[in-house]
Write a structure and sequence with these properties.
The protein is of the alpha+beta class and about 140 residues long. The protein contains 3 helices and 5 strands, in the order βααββαββ. The protein has one domain (about 15-95, about 110-140): 2-Layer Sandwich (Heat Shock Protein 90). The two termini are about 30 Å apart.
Amino acid sequence: MPTPPGEFTPLPQDIEWRLPRHARSVGRARTLLREQATSWELSSTVTETATLLLSELLTNAYRHATVSPGREIWTRCVLKADRLHIAVTDANGTLPAPRQASLEDESGRGLTLVATLSDDWGAEPRPEGVGKTVWFELTVTQAT
């Protein structure tokens, strides 16, 4: 449906971070996302869920992307209309899949959290042929 004269459709807002493949990058990304969510006036519920899920994807990327240490992890956040899309790209081409962690397991629940708490998520090889992108989407509500 076209936009009526005199009105405009807001452009998507996006930001990208390139972080070293290191455990400290997870905390840095959480801080950056919280700051960005504040500027985009996202609700605290959306912000906290997005921060948790981003943390899970980044942790997977730095732990499981068995590539040379100099490779970066890219994170892109796009806010468009009522959706927040967050993607994490690393240089490992192995696509992740949720697994059933046992009660004794200390890890292995990250993608299950992503699948449960997001409105949609997925993983795909990068079009350039090196690595993969894992993403999730959340329905957005503005801060009150």
